[in-house]
Amino acid sequence: MLLNQIKGVNDIQDINPSDYQELAQEIRDFLIEKLSHTGGHLGSNLGAVELTMALHLSLNLPEDKLIWDVGHQSYTHKLLTGRKDGFDNLRKFGGMSGFPKRKESECDCFDTGHSSTSISAGLGLVKARDIQGGTNTVVSVIGDGSLTGGMAYEALNNAAKLETNFIIVLNDNNMSISENVGGMSKYLNNVRTADAYLNIKEGIYNTLKEMPRGEKVVKGIRKAKSSFKQLVVPGMLFEDMGITYLGPVDGHNIPAMLRVLQEAKRTRNAVMVHVITQKGKGFAPAERHPARFHGAEPFDIETGLPAKPRTTANYTDIFSTVMTKLGARDEKVVAITAAMLDGTGLKRFRNMYPERLFDVGIAEEHAVTFAAGLAAGGLKPVVAIYSSFLQRAYDQILHDVCMQKLPVVFAIDRAGLVGSDGETHQGVFDLSYLSSIPDMCIMAPKNKWELSDMMKFAISFGAPIAIRYPRGEAYAGLKEYRAPIEMGKSELLYAEGEVCLMALGSMVKVAEQVKQLLNEAGYKCSIINARFAKPIDLEAVEWAVRNHKLIVTMEENVASGGYGEKVRDAVDGFKSDGKVLQIAVPDRYVEHGSVEQLMQEIGMDADSIVDRIRKEMENAR
Ligand SMILES: Cc1ncc(C[n+]2csc(CCOP(=O)(O)OP(=O)(O)O)c2C)c(N)n1
Ligand SMILES: CC(=O)[C@@H](O)[C@H](O)COP(=O)(O)O
Ligand SMILES: [Mg+2]
């Protein structure tokens, strides 16, 4: 097997060129087999096999620097840098990350996970090289979807004035997670469907040379290269900015890519190499359903179907259903997604009300200010964005939504630990960054019915409001507790005394388990479902202080700036010696693994919480 000859970095350079095709096939077979067990970002990786091989053949790693935008397509890069064994535990607890990690390999020069950062980071590495007199090559690989993100344009704008080499590879598979959207996508479509510029160029040169005085004409054209390109390349957007454009080149043809990369390396400025690939290439189910195989769960190789079909609704499903109902009831309800139509569950809303769904591309900042504009214009926008991606739009939430008290509903999915995507995607900061903003109201449902009730409350709230809910199965317990949602009011679930658990959102389910364990150990235990993280329910805090020896706050967010901190401050106000134990995500980045394993690791599973409570109670005796 050729793949077995690749034990470390640059070993691919010893492979005979006549074997490249076979190696690419072995890599595909390997990825399909491994990911059928572990899950992972299959489609993007299958599309980038030959591209990655060509880059590794052209570069000398780790001296040369290769930056992967988002990083979800870096699996072949991991294989070619000696990490084959890591695939057995890909994205598992303690195993190999699904994204580039500097601490994992010296060939991973920049950590990614969130989109559209690669050109900025690459340009930084170029400048660092130039200032220190280095000669290494720097390559940023960015997908067409990631090129919808604003940061990419800020970086291109900056890179355009560069006078040294910087290679930007545009890996264009005409897909984001769902269909790619917007003007840039349309522009790339035109470029892609035009005959390859390089072929046209050579074809025209050859024809001209046959003609009388043809050589002279060709020379003249070569001198006026850019105006010639203007004639044959639609748009010329990048060239006009000052960035050399090469391509489009077939991203599954290694010799063709090697030739273009050689040319790109000779350029004395920023150069964009436009590579055309197919998402899911070589695995029929992934070619047919690129969105489903973008981030795949373990699957059956024969059929492509999930190994474990899902039987219960997750919070995204509930959100999806309620959105269609809200859309039916009120024509003013509109929805916005930043390239996460499938992930946020807004596809159904799009299918029913296409004119009221806006997919703005990977542009969270724009999504929020756009929603502010929609609200200012009299509509009722719901912006559905994952917690960790919404981090990007802090200023837009503050400056464009909250300062004007505009009625925008933030549906914050993946709030809490997300599991196998790891530290870049854990949604454990939203309570903190949103809480600091005046006029922001934040809710979190304890179960699936409460998410529905909160959405109905939010849509008629008339001011900025956020609902955060986690990845995964929607809790179907506590159905009988369905008191109407009231602004800033919590819900008392059990009133027993001694220990009072004040739990927010997903932690209510854990609180039930904690209560049972505490009861078994002989402690009485009350539970308050917080419902609101801002404003907190001060009356409930006072009741908890007056009637319990210990208050335990529970939230799937970092402690700093979270719900527990606010409760602690309030307790101090009511009773200076009131005891509060804060259960929250610790002040460090939480890596990948299953949510259950991670909760255990950070001491937020029921057993760990009970241990801590018992210690506190024993100390108090
Ligand atoms: C800031 C941010 N928003 C959203 C995402 C989710 N996301 C990951 S990959 C992706 C699509 C990327 O498309 P493209 O760059 O074309 O890569 P492809 O998957 O097509 O190879 C999206 C929206 C993200 N990682 N970061
Ligand atoms: C790479 C990336 O950012 C997305 O593909 C992300 O992995 C999606 O996560 P979900 O599976 O939670 O939708
Ligand atoms: Mg793409």
Which SSEs are present, and which pair or pack?
Layout: H1 20-38, H2 42-47, H3 49-58, E1 65-68, H4 75-79, H5 118-131, E2 138-143, H6 150-159, E3 166-172, H7 183-193, H8 197-210, H9 214-223, H10 225-232, H11 237-241, E4 244-250, H12 254-266, E5 270-276, H13 284-288, H14 315-329, E6 333-337, H15 347-352, E7 357-359, H16 364-376, E8 380-386, H17 387-390, H18 394-402, E9 409-413, H19 430-435, E10 441-443, H20 448-459, E11 465-468, E12 491-494, E13 498-503, H21 507-520, E14 525-529, E15 532-534, H22 538-547, E16 548-558, H23 563-574, E17 580-585, H24 595-601, H25 606-620
Parallel strand pairs: 1-2, 2-3, 3-5, 4-5, 6-7, 6-8, 8-9, 9-11, 10-11, 13-14, 13-16, 16-17
Antiparallel strand pairs: 10-15, 12-14
The structure holds thiamine diphosphate, 1-deoxy-D-xylulose-5-phosphate and magnesium ion.
Polypeptide structure, described:
It catalyses: D-glyceraldehyde 3-phosphate + pyruvate + H(+) = 1-deoxy-D-xylulose 5-phosphate + CO2. It comes from Parablautia muri. By secondary structure, this protein is an alpha/beta fold. The chain folds into 3 domains: 2-8 and 18-194 and 233-288, Rossmann fold; 315-468, Thiamin diphosphate (ThDP)-binding fold, Pyr/PP domains (Rossmann fold, 3-Layer(aba) Sandwich), CATH 3.40.50; 492-620, 3-Layer(aba) Sandwich (Rossmann fold). The protein is 41% helix and 15% strand. Helix 8 (197-210) packs antiparallel against helix 9 (214-223), helix 14 packs parallel to helix 20 and helix 16 (364-376) packs parallel to helix 18. It binds thiamine diphosphate, 1-deoxy-D-xylulose-5-phosphate and magnesium ion. Residues 70, 72, 177, 294-295, 343, 414, 418, 421, 471 line the site of 1-deoxy-D-xylulose-5-phosphate.
